[in-house]
Amino acid sequence: MSEQIEYTKIFGRPESLKDTPNHYCPGCGHSVAHRLVAECLDELGLREKTIGVPPVGCAVLAYNYFNFDMVEAPHGRALAVATGIKRVHPDKFVLTYQGDGDLAAIGTAETIHAANRGERISTIFINNAIYGMTGGQMAPTTVLGQNATTAPGGRDPRLHGSPIDISRMLAVSDGVVFVERCALDSVKEIRKAKKAIKKAFQCQLDDLGFALVELLSPCPTNWKMTPKAAWDWVAKEMVKTYPLGVIKDITGYEDKK
Predict the structure, then answer these.
(1) Per the count of CB atoms within 10 A, which of 12, 23, 112, 184 is most buried?
(2) Which residues constitute the domain of residue 118?
(3) Once rounded to an integer, what is the mean pLDDT over residues 142-165?
(4) What CATH number should be reported for the domain holding residue 84?
(5) How far apart are the C-alpha atoms of 81 and 60, rounded to whole Å?
């Protein structure tokens, strides 16, 4: 008689993430970021009360992947839409999921004012230093020397200005309580990113103010790189312009531990 073996499931798809193939290019970090957001929502028991707001950009179809209520916003207006939702439904957990072209370009005004007001919203900011969905144009976050379809010779500070570090800009606002920049290029950094996302979510639960987590993520297609080369570029080059770590933290959470 054969011995019956019992198995314990230790890894699976988060409930907050639908079981469906995604449309992202090979090597893109959006799918990793989606999973981290979903895991944090599950672990905090927030799925049933969450309303997510994705705008136009590569994340425009995020509602196909997240298994909770979603409201699509016009390009750049995610934080304006999210503000309205949170003001009308203060009991809901509201998050925005935005790219750099959306959050730091067409949506700059909405971003700055929502943060300055200290809106009780959690923002996940994907920084891939380029316009991904529309064909690889230069973004506010494109680093110096980086090629783009609108800067084929590389970003020149005299012509195009320097990259905008929107996370540091927001951190000076009194309404902002937590900002951290992470990367998705390794297991170690992904674990740090998850911890930061969960902390940003906790800020909203504790009614502290605005919180943002920036995630450095590659765009192999528009960078004209292989997935591996793109991830290596994040780890070795992109971090020179956008250093990883906590930019602002006045939550006091560490003092409570």
Answers:
(1) 184
(2) 30-256
(3) 96
(4) 3.40.50.970
(5) 15
